[in-house]
Amino acid sequence: MARTPQTLFEKVWQRHEVCAESAGTPAVLYVDLHLVHEVTSPQAFALLRERGLPVRRPDRTLATMDHSTPTSTAQVFGGAPITIDAAARQVRELEENCAQFGVELLGLRHGQRGIVHVIGPELGLTQPGRTIVCGDSHTSTHGALGALAFGIGSTEVAHVLATQCLLQRKPRTLAVQVEGPLAPGVTAKDLILAIIGHLGVSGGTGHVIEYHGDTIARLDMEERMTVCNMSIEAGARAGMIAPDETTFAYLQGRPRAPAGEAWERALEEWRQLPGDRGARFDREVDIDAAAVEPMITYGTNPGMVIPIGGNIPQRPGDPVFARALEYMGFNAGEPIKDQPVNVVFIGSCTNARLSDLRTAAAVLRGRRIASGLTMLVVPGSQQVKRAAEAEGLDRVFLDAGAEWRESGCSMCLGMNGDVVGRGQYAISTSNRNFEGRQGAGARTLLASPLTAAASAVRGRVTDPRELA
Amino acid sequence: MERFTSLTSRTVVLPAANIDTDQIIPARFLTTTTRAGLGEQLFADWRYDEHGVPRAEFALNQPSAAGCRILVAGRNFGCGSSREHAAWALIDHGFRAVISTELADIFANNALKNGLLPVIVEQATAEWLIAHPGASLTIDVALRTLALPEGTTVSFPLEAFAQHRLLEGVDELEFLLARGREIDAYERRA
Lengths: 468, 190
What we know:
The structure holds two protein chains of two kinds.
Chain A: H1 8-15, E1 17-19, E2 27-30, E3 33-36, H2 42-51, E4 61-64, H3 73-76, H4 85-101, E5 104-106, H5 116-123, E6 131-134, E7 148-151, H6 154-163, E8 165-168, E9 172-179, H7 188-199, E10 207-212, H8 214-218, H9 221-229, E11 238-240, H10 245-251, H11 260-270, E12 283-288, E13 295-297, E14 305-307, H12 319-328, E15 343-346, H13 354-364, E16 374-377, H14 382-390, H15 393-400, E17 403-404, E18 425-428, E19 443-446, H16 449-458
Helix pairs in contact in A: 2-6, 7-9, 13-15, 13-16
Chain B: E1 6-14, H1 21-24, H2 44-47, E2 70-73, H3 85-93, E3 97-100, H4 105-113, E4 117-120, H5 123-131, E5 136-140, E6 145-147, E7 153-155, H6 160-168, H7 172-177, H8 180-189
Parallel strand pairs in B: 1-2, 2-3, 3-4
Antiparallel strand pairs in B: 1-5, 5-6, 6-7
């Protein structure tokens, strides 16, 4: 009997079923790699301690700190105390938990520390066909390499620490087919914002997205990570892209990728992963990449997004929409372009990799940011930081008047004190423009590093194609 | 975990769609290392003004909201961040059920693990509930039903294993730990 054609997701799922699901019980799904950070793990370690349980597979667990950590060099390396006591306590508690349970920690001063979703791929730990979880919704990022990766809550963090498994109902599948060339000035960030605008912020709920098509195949690995990263903003647990030569070239030689004979064996296995011809999806959506323009959000969720040359929509009689515009201080029908900006943030697990920093630096080289504007550039990891410095990108940012910081989540969620002031407008390369996300009362406009850098130069929302 | 068989309570209504977990519990309160005590900060930026003074017009601050254990919310409640602190804050405040036409995946998962019941209803039921804040409802977990005050009863979906866990008060970790042999076998063949 011919085997039923399977999608990439179905292959990875099936290979990790410890017990298949039944009407009465969910599947027991094995986790290959568990990434842990300081904010969502303390309660999980506490649960293990309460029950007297060890970590089942410390060798499949890696911890780092990123969410509440400072980005000031003095606090990270200079011996200055972490200014937020509670953050300092979380850092200390993760150190103690990792020491007690035998979990490897890339701690505050480690050269390979960084945002958990930046360092996984960078170290070569994120590999095709793996199941990867972390107590963070942007774990979807790792799907760019053909892994099944999704965010979990702290109780589930405890489950994985104790058993290396999760109880899961099999999600539905959604194929997003993207065809056509991206126009100059249009980036992977613009593409995923357009996709979220199309699907809506709950359009992917209950689904795992697979991104297909020639546009996706042409993206480099860092661009693919940007796309998969924001799958959760459409409500999807995970986003995946089939591994190909681009994936393999990215992984080869990374410190924790297989090497030698193991590499050859892994390649053979990984080449079996792409979905079979004729595999069926629960839903399919087509996106015309050639029609995508530089995108920017105007409201308080990532689905409230328009082309940068467009006008803010009008939805009379919709009180939620009206409230969002009131929060943002915008009027329906007015153009978004030329709105004044107070803060520009280049950073986050969405857009803080080396290619993102190069893109922003190319705009800023030989230019200054607008007077009165604050610009923060926060590399995604310490390795990204060093690589950028080796190319002189730090000088470009500093000469332009921006701040150059140590790595971390920083202003994406403002936990560490890097916040946008009440009522201020920030163009941010991050992933969420929720009310208060970047600080109480802060107003966030999500955009690409290109748009963010161009807007920093003018101090107003700027179409990057006008500065080229 | 405590058994959860039925619940009768009046409702508090937050009609907005897409209420994200950053609204339920803002990130600056995630520096806690325990589960307890987050109820005070539930919906902090909607509940209190910038000086920490409660906003009288916010639903949770109205006297009628005291003691309500059921929250009715607009569609796609709990979207965004995976922070389980959102479920902990709702429970710490006293909620035991959240009703909406649609709940975000990770939030619904987190809620169930803490004995906060996610209840998905049809649009018409949601519209009635939003139009009648303070309505007294009875939720029956065994029957998977929601009884409205004027005599209507609607059913809601609840995954079989989650239902079993709520009714028996068992948690998932016990179930997973009992699969030790299967996990060993998987690790040997993988």
